[in-house]
Amino acid sequence: MKIILIGYMGSGKSSVGKKLASVLNLPFKDLDTEIEQSENLSVSEIFSQKGEIYFRKTENKVLKTLLKQAGSFVLATGGGTPCYADSLTFMLEEPNTILVYLKNSLEVLTNRLLLEKEHRPLLAHLNSEEEVNDFIRKHLFERTFYYNQANIIVESSAKNIAETTEEIVGRLF
Ligand SMILES: Nc1ncnc2c1ncn2[C@@H]1O[C@H](COP(=O)(O)OP(=O)(O)O)[C@@H](O)[C@H]1O
Ligand SMILES: O=C(O)C1=C[C@@H](OP(=O)(O)O)[C@@H](O)[C@H](O)C1
Ligand SMILES: [Mg+2]
């Protein structure tokens, strides 16, 4: 079985994904890391040197290559993965694959991302807390349409990483 985590930046896809893989004794893959390895550049370097469109094309290509691999694993996607080209349809149509949306409130996401915004090229240029707030509110609204198409939606705003992992395991089996 392939378990794919989707959701906005800062929703915990990478941290919960790692924990979930360890609990289920499955390999863990992070799409951003796979992209960095295939390009030999960090995500931020890809955005600054090659631009977002190039990143989105690479993201779509690396996703498809990964999902065509045999075997089970947990995959943490990037926040934009399901929102471009045919990536969402591709993930939904892949056999033995379950999409899990890690749903978090705007407030939780904003608080986490204010601490980590330098690592997110889409946020790094925003100057004030108010600008970050305004950007995330609009962006999350636009992307929620895609996230809501997941097979399982896990509300994780009030849960720590272990509790979110436990809820996913309970919903899977
Ligand atoms: N309850 C929680 N669930 C998930 N992540 C949390 C939680 N509380 C704090 N965090 C922190 O929030 C950040 C989430 O980032 P990350 O896992 O990289 O998310 P994503 O991959 O979705 O952007 C990490 O620094 C993580 O340690
Ligand atoms: O939301 C997005 O468009 C992005 C999210 C990032 O991943 P995380 O959601 O793991 O931060 C990374 O793929 C890139 O910075 C773009
Ligand atoms: Mg991540």
From TrEMBL:
This is Shikimate kinase. It catalyses: shikimate + ATP = 3-phosphoshikimate + ADP + H(+). Monomer. It holds the Pfam family SKI. InterPro entries: P-loop_NTPase (IPR027417), Shikimate/glucono_kinase (IPR031322), Shikimate_kinase/TSH1 (IPR000623). It comes from Aequorivita marisscotiae. Its cofactor is Mg(2+). Substrate binds at D32, R56, G79, R143. Catalyzes the specific phosphorylation of the 3-hydroxyl group of shikimic acid using ATP as a cosubstrate. Its EC number is 2.7.1.71. The gene is aroK. Its main location: cytoplasm. ATP binds at G10, S11, G12, K13, S14, S15, R120. It comes from the Bacteria. Pathway: Metabolic intermediate biosynthesis; chorismate biosynthesis; chorismate from D-erythrose 4-phosphate and phosphoenolpyruvate: step 5/7. One of its GO terms (molecular function) is kinase activity. Mg(2+) binds at S14. Belongs to the shikimate kinase family. It is found in: Cytoplasm. Keywords: Amino-acid biosynthesis, Aromatic amino acid biosynthesis, ATP-binding, Cytoplasm, Kinase, Magnesium, Metal-binding, Nucleotide-binding, Transferase. Binds 1 Mg(2+) ion per subunit.
